[in-house]
Amino acid sequence: MGETICHWIDGKLQDGQSGRTGPVFDPATGKERARVAFASAEEVDKGVAVAKNAFASWRDTSLTKRAQIMFSFRSLLDEARNELAAIIAAEHGKTKPDALGEVQRGLETVEFACGIPQLLKGDSSLQVSTGVDLISVREPVGVVGCITPFNFPAMVPLWMTPIAIACGNSVILKPSEKDPSASNFMAELYSRAGLPSGVLNVIHGDRVAVERLIEHPDVAALSFVGSTPVARAIYEGGTRNGKRVQALGGAKNHMLVLPDADMDLAADAAVSAAYGSAGERCMAISVVVTVGDAADLLLPKIQERIGKLKVGSAEDPEAEMGPLITAEHRDKVISYIDSGVEEGAELVCDGRGLSVPGCEGGYFVGPTLFDRVKPDMKIYRDEIFGPVLSMVRTEHFTDAVALVNENPYANGTAIFTNDGGAARRFQREIQVGMVGINVPIPVPLGFYSFGGWKSSLFGAHSIYGPDGVHFYTRPKVITTRWPEPEHRGVDLGFPRSR
Q: From residue 465, how far is each of 218, 419, 441 by CA, in Å?
């Protein structure tokens, strides 16, 4: 057993006081590599008190100073990208190129936050009435709780913390207890960049910590990314306690393929988007919906590419896909494959029983492919969050669009076609938050915002980008009139323009 991963509070590592810890595994070997402290409600209270105290002065720090710290943090993060990627790979299990890609997408949000002086510019209107001016400004909300998932231990915290901090808030970051070290590493980089102590605090733990953040009266806002049931619970609990909440939930992302599509391009995209990071992505393609005879053209190409994939540890430079995060999650994914077989789907590629030499205790499931999946099957209805791709066959374009629109999840979707008219119709008719045209994973760049519809997003704000700035600030409108030489006297009528 290795070290105990501690909380980061008030600019330094602090041992857990609750006496409770949880294991952190190497998913490639199944061996425990560390323990992580689980915070008590009292330890959360301590972190919030530190953050509240730091907020008082941080909100008054100039925009130029905040931007300078963000530029410095960006430089340090860029220099440390390989070290951070190694931490991610060791605790999550994803390959190092995949981990480096995650860090890069996080860097893009930091770069966006570097422009905070421009992003927080208000509006003004002079002489809206005789001698009256109006200005609008955006002010930070206070202490923000950021609750992040295991599948992107660096990227999702980097989607939240740079914007929240640059806007003048203080932050309590509660990362996943499954791979917590990346958050501590980034907290140290923030400190080295000049961020004052207490502005960012990392509190590790489980449901106890999350529930205390939800109910704590000094936490003004909550950002969350995770499963839909938990997103809904955090949204309902947070709003019930008077907080603003952005809670991003699960997904069941469909990729439509029309008969006129470039089938090699579509096959490459389907395999890449379905099996990257072992399918543990909220933007993974988990369903390919074919129209007409597209399935017969596409299926053998996907099958061929699956047969060439190399599954292994992140330590293997040739590995393209790693293990799942825990033994429990591996077993859950395998149970879905069992269910698909029992319900009558055609199992084309079976990832069960995979053993990686030298990593026999790892949590591996190989790339799995089902054909002729029906919408009433469990493997279609549920978010599996593993390397399982389902193919659903439809006769007509309208049937395929209806299938996507009837799904309760609406995070991302894509269409592959060479027909511009069909693509334009698809992007207009589809009821999904993020749409790709011959792009399988349509994750917007950092200067746009990321968010789905329906059961994939709870709250009015998407994450990062302009919506992130709006979420982590609230507007204030100021009406100004300076005394005139002659007063008009008392007027009890409703204020009106003159």
A: 25, 31, 18
